[in-house]
Specification:
single chain; alpha/beta; Ribosomal Protein L4, Chain: A; six-stranded mixed sheet; 41% helix; Ribosomal_uL4-like; structural constituent of ribosome; ribonucleoprotein; Ribosomal_uL4
């Protein structure tokens, strides 16, 4: 198909090039306009009838809008489902990069490995260094001391020793992983935003019933405050499918692991302030 397109373009451009090479002055403009008149009409028709993609109309990415939910049961008409929150597209509409998520998750899992596995080599095993039997004359296999890895009770050959499994990953890669993970949850409709995470009382059963009504099983609640509200933390401590965390302690692994993420306004502000584009002052010009 591409070769056919090249032949058509060559056939159309060859007469035009001949005309430009042999005619000069006003006649050249008339000849070139007559050759490209049909192509000009086709291009005009296409531009008038075909819709222009939205991302080509404006160089700016449109913001992301999400409906605001409520953890507490609504009181009358105090809460409306039509309330929406505007999110920064640089943080919550980032292109999905599975390779970045893999790097961040692997980096986190490597950092939590204990690395305390240890075995004794033949130099660490207790025993004498005397040769077990003579080298020759017995008709059996030759052996050295009793700490040989071939013998029962001897040392371990190439066994594990305590070491550090943690790997290095650049800070900007981790920040990109947070943007990708948040954007992926937005695209999957698995990200919720609430005004706050305050929960009156510490009864686990009441919180469990409320989460069943909202359909928020296996949910991670993230607060932008210094500490998670005490009421929610106390009520959710006995629920296996609920976990709470602060925005500063959140990892990319947590965003990938939990099927649903719920942020409060403080957490949204924290992520936009930390992961958003840096504010650059306009350059001052001296005249």
């Amino acid at each position: 198909m591409f070769s056919a397109c090249r032949r058509v373009i060559a056939q159309v451009s060859r007469p035009a090039s001949r005309g430009l090479s042999t005619i000069s002055g006003p006649e050249a403009l008339i000849a070139s306009s007559s050759v490209n008149h049909a192509a000009l009409n086709v291009s005009l028709d296409v531009s008038l009838h075909e819709p222009v993609p939205s991302h080509k109309l404006s160089p700016f990415t449109p913001p992301v809008y999400l409906s605001i939910s409520s953890l507490l049961p609504p009181l009358g008409d105090a809460f409306s489902a039509e309330n929406v929150v505007e999110l920064d597209p640089h943080v919550f509409s980032h292109p999905i990069r599975r390779d970045i998520l893999h790097l961040c998750v692997t980096h986190y899992l490597d950092s939590i490995r204990q690395g305390t596995a240890s075995t004794k080599t033949r130099g660490d095993v207790r025993g004498s260094g005397r040769k077990i039997r003579p080298q020759k004359g017995t008709g059996r296999a030759r052996l050295g001391d009793g700490q040989s890895p071939m013998l029962r009770g001897g040392g371990v050959a190439h066994g594990p020793k305590p070491r550090d499994f943690s790997t290095k990953l650049n800070r900007k890669v981790i920040q990109m992983g947070m943007r990708v993970a948040l954007s992926a949850r937005v695209k999957e409709n698995a990200l919720g935003v609430v005004e706050n995470l305050n929960w009156t009382g510490g009864k686990t059963k009441q919180l469990d019933n409320r989460l069943q009504e909202l359909g928020w099983r296996k949910t991670l609640f993230v607060s932008g405050l210094e500490h998670v509200p005490q009421g929610l933390q106390k009520a959710s401590s006995n629920l296996k499918y609920v976990q709470t965390s602060t925005a500063k302690d959140l990892k990319v692994y947590d965003l990938v692991k939990w099927p649903r993420i719920v942020l409060d306004f403080a957490a949204v502000d924290w992520f936009e302030r930390t992961l958003g584009r840096p504010a650059v002052d306009p350059r001052a010009y001296s005249l």
